[in-house]
Design goal:
With about 160 residues, the chain is of the alpha/beta class. It is built from 5 helices and 8 strands; from the N terminus they run βαβββαβαβαββα.
């Protein structure tokens, strides 16, 4: 009889499917109300495919609800200053005063620590302002005084591969 029962401890995936990419680095995802990655599409999935684990960082109570789902913030500004995250991801979002001030504060912390900042949609303009450089593209990577523009997903994968 026990031979006919399914064992609940065995994996139930088909071979070749549902194999997550091994995570090689952890980056902070700055949560913004109305998050949007612009014309590049769903960058969260693209980053996960490239082995990036995203740790949400809150910029206020409104940022913790995304698409009707409450998101648990698993990273803080302390994770940026202590080096527990290897970079910061800034999506576009609503431009409320308090939220934008929080985003700029987190960007300045990342800049001071020399961490790369991956910005998308209107997050590119916020990051460009914080880093004091000019950038206009669907996505961009900021590090120090350098900026690399991202116009396609393939460019994102190439940039992420260089982050250690």
């Amino acid at each position: 009889m026990s031979a006919q029962r399914n064992n609940s401890t065995t994996p139930r995936t088909r071979p070749g499917f549902n194999r997550p990419a091994p995570m090689r680095l952890r980056m902070g995802l700055i949560m913004r109300k109305g998050m949007d990655f612009g014309p590049l599409g769903d960058m969260e999935t693209a980053l996960r495919i490239d082995g990036v684990s995203l740790a949400p960082i809150s910029t206020g109570d409104a940022s913790l609800v995304s698409g009707g789902v409450t998101v648990l913030a698993t990273a803080t500004a302390d994770d940026i200053t202590s080096g527990r995250v290897k970079g910061v991801v800034v999506p576009g979002g609503e431009a409320d005063e308090a939220g934008v001030a929080q985003v700029k504060s987190l960007l300045m912390l990342a800049k001071a620590q020399g961490l790369p900042v991956l910005a998308f949609a209107d997050g590119v303009a916020l990051a460009a302002e914080a880093f004091g450089v000019a950038a206009e593209a669907p996505g961009a990577v900021f590090r120090g005084d350098k900026v690399a523009l991202i116009n396609e997903r393939a460019e994102l994968s190439a940039v992420v591969a260089t982050i250690a």
